[in-house]
Amino acid sequence: MKRPAKPPPPRPARKKRQRLFPKPDPNPPPPPPKPPRRPNPIHNPTDQLRMTVKVMIAGGIKQSDVAQVLAISIPTLRKHYRREIDIGAAEVAARVITSIITMATTGKNFQAAKYYTQARLGWSEKITVEGQGDAMGFAKLVEVLEQRRKRPEG
User: Which of 30, 70, 126, 128 lies 20 to 30 A from 111 at CA?
Assistant: First the structure.
C-alpha cells in the first residue's frame, strides 16, 4: 500500500511591501499652535537721545549706524526722531557759526576771526602786488632779505 502524500508545508506569510510614498493620512493631527507674537518693546525718546541723534546726524553718520547705536530699527528711528534727522545738521552748524562769530568779535580767539574773514568775507593770506614797477618797495625788501641771508648767524 502506498502511503498517502504529505501535504506540502505551509508557506510563510508574505511581508507587506512598504510603499515608497505612503498614502496621506485622511485625518492628520492639527499643527501645533504658534507661540503668541511678542510685540516690539516701546521706544521712549529722551532729550539726551534726541541730542545724541542730532549730533550723530550732523556729524555725517548714516541713519543705519545711528539706529544700531540706539538699538532700534531704522523705521523706529525715522518715526521718533524725524525732526532731528531733518534739521539736526543745520541746527548744529548754526551753533558752530554762532560760536565762531562770538569768539571772533570778542577778541578771545584770533583763529576764529581769521577763519570768519576768510570764509565769509573772502579774504585770503595771499599777498598781491598791484601796480607797475617798484611801487610797493619790493626791490628794497628783496635787498634786505638777501643781506640777512648772507650775514653769518651767531
Answer: 128
Distances in whole angstroms, Cα of residue 13 to Cα of each of 8, 10, 16, 84 = 15, 9, 9, 83
Task: Give the model confidence (pLDDT) of 103-147 as tens digits.
Answer: 778 877 778 777 777 777 777 766 665 655 555 566 777 777 777
The domain locations on the chain are 47-123
- Residue-wise pLDDT for 34-47, tens only, equals 888 888 788 999 99
Name, in order, each residue with C-beta under 8 angstroms of 50's C-beta and a sequence gap of 6 or more: 81, 84
Q: Tell me whether residue 43 is exposed, middle or buried, using C-beta atoms within 10 angstroms of its C-beta: 0 to 12, 13 to 18, 19 or more.
A: middle
CA distance 9 to 12: 9
